[in-house]
Protein 1
Amino acid sequence: MSENAEAIREICDSIIRRVDRAYVAECGKRNELPKKLWDMWAESGLLSIGLPEEYGGSGGSLSDIVLAMDLLHTEALLLPLAVPNFMSRGPLLKFASEEQKRRYLPPTATGEEFFSFGITEPDAGTNTFKIKTTAIRQPDGTFLLNGGKTYQTAFVESAHCLLVARTQPYDPEDRTKGISLFILDTKLPGISATQMDIGMYLPEKNYTTYFDNVVLPADALVGEEGRGLNILFDSLNSERLLVAAMNVGQADYCINRAAEYAKTRAPFDTPIGAYQSIQHPLARAKTYNESARSMMYLATAKHDRGENIGVEANMVKVLASESFKMAAEIAMTCFGGAGVDVSQDILPFYIAAQNNIVAPVNNQIVLSFIAEKVLGLPKSY
Ligand SMILES: Cc1cc2nc3c(=O)[nH]c(=O)nc-3n(C[C@H](O)[C@H](O)[C@H](O)COP(=O)(O)OP(=O)(O)OC[C@H]3O[C@@H](n4cnc5c(N)ncnc54)[C@H](O)[C@@H]3O)c2cc1C
């Protein structure tokens, strides 16, 4: 735990006292940002953590952010949007020009502006190397953007999108070459978006986006042209840990709700929590979740010491998402038919847990990565 842990706990406790789950659940039903919660994150300084003071931040580390995400998600005060907000900073701090940093980073600390991410395309799916959106350099130095993306969380609501596009044709000899990273102003002419009909109770909308001859200024490019994927991959380990915090937090919410319900629900006069068929899966889910949480904090501390956590971050992604799924499943069983009654507030987590197995990256490819890097098995992707 970092030296700021006590202060982070106090901030989160104060937010938990002032925002109730019912409000966040209602926003989730309408796929609307829980503005009250977002404003509290901003006002309490949580959004400024991890950003150096010279860019409007308050310093601190990934451990601090992960702790805040864990504590608030344990109470189901969901704020997935915080992930792209924090994640956008890594590549910008490391690869953006000084001018770009001064323009784009400070509003992410105050909550006035946030970034969305534009990676996934309908055909390419998990295989980002195969994206077809192009950004072709023009004689005047600008780039002409054409193509489209899908599953763009909060694209319309975000001021900017960190977007990858092809600036050179696909090169089978070096798959990471030829893709560049841009800061896309989401209000530029030629951009349109349609809201997707996602059957999840998320506090954000998701969009399919279309880019029709969008003119990107030369200074929209981040880092070296053609090396955008390497820049992006650089920030993925912190994403894995932030998403893990959401998973272990929500897993605990499911376990706690199920345990409370199991103490009083008694169709055969004995509380269902007395049955081993209910007790053991709940206890198992709790055990797995604490193990996932421990590894998450160990990996986060290692990250903050500047060590490579490629393998650990991916292992934590698998552990935390599977632990959430295990917890959501037993919670559904505990609640019986009431599990699908949305007003009981269990079903949204069951759907989210399954989704978090495949997003933001699917566990199958993550396991393939671990098999290759740790076990020396052939690369399969
Ligand atoms: C709610 C939500 C929000 C999202 N937000 C964003 C966002 O803001 N920005 C963004 O860019 N993207 C976003 N995504 C996209 C997400 O990152 C992708 O869904 C994910 O990367 C997988 O791509 P796909 O859905 O096309 O799956 P596919 O590539 O079609 O894969 C389908 C399945 O095949 C299997 N599979 C695929 N490849 C392999 C392999 N090599 N080895 C083994 N198994 C494999 C996996 O089981 C996988 O689940 C979001 C997705 C969701 C659901």
Protein 2
Amino acid sequence: MSASPAAQKRPSPEQAAACFARLKQAIIDRTGHHYYADKDALLRDRLDRRVAATGCRGLPDYLSLLGQPVAGPVEWQELEAEVTIGETFFFRHTEQFDALRRVILPGIIAHNAATRSLRIWSAGCAVGAEPYSVAILLEQLLGERMRHWTIDIVGSDISQRALAQARDGRFSNWALRGMPEDRKAQDFVPCEDRRQWRIIDRHRRHVRFRQHNLLSLLDGAKGPDDARDGDCRGFDLILCRNVLIYFSPERIAPMLAALGRCLSPQGWLMVGHSDAIAALPAELRIVELPGTIVFRPPGPDAPAVTPPAPQHAAPQPTASETWAARRPTANPSPAAVVAGIAEPPVATIRALADAGRLRSASEACAAAIAAYPLDPRLHFYDGVIAQAAGQRTHAEAALRRAIYLSGEMVMAHYHLGLLLLDGATPEAGRRVMTHVAKLCGALPETHVLPESDGLSPRDLIERIGMRLRARRPAREV
Ligand SMILES: C[S@@+](CC[C@H](N)C(=O)[O-])C[C@H]1O[C@@H](n2cnc3c(N)ncnc32)[C@H](O)[C@@H]1O
């Protein structure tokens, strides 16, 4: 795309600054990403990438391109993909998936037994790990019965680029890091390059993807299916996790209320742990489950449900916590959550890696290590990124550095164990895993392992057990 002749002159610094301010506002208005309000350098970097990709000579030229009747909307899609953060992976936040597995989905299945149909919306689904995880989970719960159910899982996102990847259904090892190896082999097939895995068709056919801007919900409750049948209501479950964190605090309660209106009277709404909810709309009540909270419509239409007994001894809510319509007390403010991302840029590194941009993630990690050489988390991510990229020697050295800096960093030991188990010295890997299990055994059950995306020590011990059993030669089994 070439620049218009009128824009061949370089803009003055004042012009560029005014254009940047207009573009920033336009981006925040269009995507809801208030997140960029105090991140000019980051936004500028992303804009510069689009300016370069389109061949524009500067921000004024780029601004006029966005305003063009035909090329403008196309470029807006590219810009939306550039500025949104698509960090995701399968079965992200174990305790939320435990709540789905043990309480929410069994409840929906029991309630809908007569119609044998269910509707689920993953709003802000990025490249699809979340809706596909739900499809996998439903098959685990329904088993053979799945064939007799009508299951409609819709994944929506503002980013067309993310949706194209979601439809393709291919994922790197990095995106599958929340899955045990044995499950991975059942639910995915390896791609030819052996670096990616494709979700099997049996799961794919339950999930469809639609472009949808969540802000449109605030202009009259338009849902992902509006274009199809005008009906965005009646979802049994809506997941909108790790999306609201980017929105301004004032938008969060109206957005929750709008999502609540898209639920069936018995429906469930789950947001992410970091989606700080400062005010709850009257349309919703809070239900507390072990390790997470969810929202449901209020009133007699949403009867109290007793959660089934957990399959293992997960931390249980106290009587006063159980199913009480309480407001959360100690949620961090969105500003605090966002501020936590700033330095060292661990979240940015993870976001890049989650988006499959391993080279950029590794470069960002190297730069961060130069600035914060003693931060064990950075060496840990350096290691797991190298591990995902197949650079075993680099990965091992980085993980050992993380362990040297923080001997208690359980996830660094665990990843080193995985690396060794898969390499030439599996016995050393087994020894490391035994050590990890010992470290976990010394921690309280309610502890959440840092850099583990919500795993408890018990979860990790289970995972290690599965991993070791999967590798044991047949005669030992
Ligand atoms: C961090 S990802 C979360 C993915 C997934 N829900 C999870 O938790 O793993 C956030 C996603 O929200 C999408 N998003 C951001 N703003 C949006 C909006 N206004 N409407 C729809 N999707 C949006 C982004 O494109 C991105 O893919």
